[in-house]
Amino acid sequence: MELSKAASINSDRMKPIERYQVEKTPRGYQILLSFSISATEDLMESSVAHIIEDLNIMIINKPFTTISLQNNTYMLDAEYGFKRTSKFNFSLIKKKKKNLITY
Fold first, then answer.
1. Strands across the sheet with 82-84, in order?
2. Which ranges of 1-95 would DSSP assign to H, the alpha helix?
3. Whose CA is closest to 50, among 62, 37, 59, 60?
4. pLDDT profile of the chain (103 residues), mean per 10
């Protein structure tokens, strides 16, 4: 998964949740994607809070990070970033272009 690579975490720790939400905005359609990030007791690995913070910073600053270079992550909305939506779920917005979803 491109996001786990960007955050330098094991892909087993970050999983997409099969649900998504489409929202119509003045800028067009956006898709709200959800992920679960599992905690670890390994002190050498990033905490969930650190992963959220890193991904948010990387998405907001995507022109300067690898987020803009990947096949799917380049469409992530830099104005939204990566947000915690509940104790167990995290979300981000992906712009929908020409009614084609590539995620």
1. 14-25, 28-37, 90-95, 82-84
2. 2-6, 48-60
3. 37
4. 86 85 81 85 90 92 91 86 69 46 33
pTM (2 d.p.): 0.76
Q: How far is CA 24 from CA 31, 32, 93, 95, 103, in A?
A: 9, 11, 12, 10, 18
Sorted by where each starts, the structural domains of the chain and their CATH numbers stand as 2-95 (3.30.1360)
Find out whether 83 and 56 touch, Cβ atoms under 8 Å.
yes
Using CA atoms, how far apart are residues 4 and 50, in angstroms rounded to an integer?
A: 13
| Contact predicate 88/66, CB 8 Å | no
**Total count of residues recorded for the chain:** 103
- Phi first, then psi: what are they for 78, rounded to 5°? -65, -20
